[in-house]
Amino acid sequence: MKKIVVLTGAGISAESGLRTFRDSNGLWEEHRVEDVATYEAWQRNQQLVLDFYNQRRKQLYEVKPNAGHYALVELEKKFDVHIITQNVDDLHEQAGSGRVLHLHGELKKVRSTIDENLVYELNGWELKKGDLCEKGSQLRPHIVWFGEAVPMIEPAMELSAKADIYIVIGTSLNVYPAAGLVYYVKKDTPVYLVDPHAEMLQGVNNLTVFREPAGTGVPKLVNQLLKSVP
Ligand code: APR
């Protein structure tokens, strides 16, 4: 089977009701990154950070995958599909995708503040002050904050370099190192971009753009790819 690697961002979950970050009405219009998504913010005001992620986690329990997520599951019928997501939601997994690599963490998990290897599934949506790890430190959201290392970037680079087909869905490609992954793709590998506000990707040759929402664009692309294999 040909290997398809898919890089997704907040846009693929927009039609499920989860806000993106940088669109009009995006999360970063209402919250300052410095207040809720850095380690310094965590040291300064834990309750503000806990409230921000608790609200997002509460909402995650209220939404479902959309046609874009489900279409990628269909693709697994004829292709070896690997998803690299910047999203911290679990909508790819809920839709049934088998291989999902989270670059920026997972909202339904929490971890120790003093030992990043101590990661736990959170029961329910609320993480409270006083919820401690087995070493006695306050539990924090299992999220990669701005300025923190991205532990899964190496496997993501290796996967991108092995792709026979590369698909980019719903990301503004503003945040590195994730935004640089498309440049690890072998030259002349077909690259597809699905985004209603898509712009051409500098330095990417074999690019096809679906300038539309994931809910319609991804099923269209998937049908095309599935038809291309006997
Ligand atoms: N379908 C597809 N794409 C969409 C849709 C949709 N229905 N709606 C919006 N988009 C596109 C926008 O045009 C934009 O290009 O999704 C993209 C969302 O971009 P961002 O809000 O910047 O989200 P993302 O690229 O995932 O952010 C990257 O930044 O804030 C950090 O850690 C956070 O993982 C996140 C990272």
Quote the average pLDDT: 96
The secondary-structure element order is EHHHHHHEHEEEEHEEEH
Strand content is 15-25%
Assign the structural class, choosing from mainly alpha, mainly beta, alpha/beta, alpha+beta, or little secondary structure: alpha/beta
Topology:
Layout: E1 3-8, H1 11-14, H2 27-30, H3 33-36, H4 39-44, H5 46-60, H6 67-75, E2 80-85, H7 91-95, E3 100-102, E4 105-112, E5 119-121, E6 139-143, H8 153-162, E7 165-169, E8 191-194, E9 207-210, H9 214-227
Helix pairs in contact: 6-9
How would you describe this structure to a colleague?
By secondary structure, the protein is α/β, with parallel strands linked by helices. Helices cover 31% and strands 19% of the residues. It has 9 helices and 9 strands. It has helices at residues 11-14, 27-30, 33-36, 39-44, 46-60, 67-75, 91-95, 153-162, 214-227; strands at residues 3-8, 80-85, 100-102, 105-112, 119-121, 139-143, 165-169, 191-194, 207-210. The protein has a 6-stranded parallel β-sheet with strand order 3-2-1-7-8-9, with helices on both faces. Strands 5-4-6 form a 3-stranded antiparallel β-sheet. α7 (91-95) links the parallel β2 (80-85) and β3. The chain starts with a strand and ends with a helix.
What structural keywords apply?
230 residues, alpha/beta, three-stranded antiparallel beta sheet, 9 strands, 31% helix, binds adenosine-5-diphosphoribose
Brief summary of the model shown:
With 230 residues, this protein is an alpha/beta fold. It is built from 9 helices and 9 strands.
